Automatic annotation (TrEMBL):
This is PPIase cyclophilin-type domain-containing protein. GO terms for molecular function: peptidyl-prolyl cis-trans isomerase activity. SUPFAM superfamilies: Cyclophilin-like. PROSITE patterns: CSA_PPIASE_2. Transmembrane segments: none annotated. It holds the Pfam family Pro_isomerase. Coiled coil: none annotated. It comes from Calcidiscus leptoporus. It comes from the Eukaryota. Residues 1-205 form the PPIase cyclophilin-type domain.
Amino acid sequence: QPHSRPLYRMVFGLYNEAAPLGTERFVNFVQGSVGQFKGTLDGPSYRSSCFERLRPGVVAEGGRITGLDLTPFAGQLEYQYRSRLLPLRPVLEVNDLKHSQRGLLTRRILNAGPEFGVTLAAAPSLDGSWEVIGELQQGGELLHLIEELPFITGKSVEQPGSLAEQVFQAQKSVFSSLSKSVGDSRASDRTGQLLRRVEITNCGVIV
């Protein structure tokens, strides 16, 4: 079939008892019921998001939702969705669960947005700053495919210590500094960004 794309399915079991607040926020983004959209279910949802970043051997990151953006408001950055202000705050919750294996669903504790991660192996470096909220029950094949995709390394291909490598690092530093000074969005760190699209096109809660 022309232009067909492979479809895969992931199923996560959520740790409702160990992470009640973290799992509630995750489900809200699954259903589109976060904040003032609770009654309408037409808010920002993972059904219009993707996996976008890879930390090899650590975590695959995704969940950034199309149309949910940060915008300046009253001297600080707030989320906005479909031109409606959506004040989100970090879910400050921790538990005793460790990032001890592959396939754990996790989230940054201090991040107010919808982003999440799935561990690629035991990842003790995430303990303390990320909270485990569930585990992958189906979809291991897709996780394997994601970690095999090409991504931006942010590293020079030149020999370490060589003149060419030093020139690369100097140019990278100058470009980043100049971009930040003029507000160019390209100054953001793209290390780990996937070079292939992995879209989440539908999602829901299995009761």
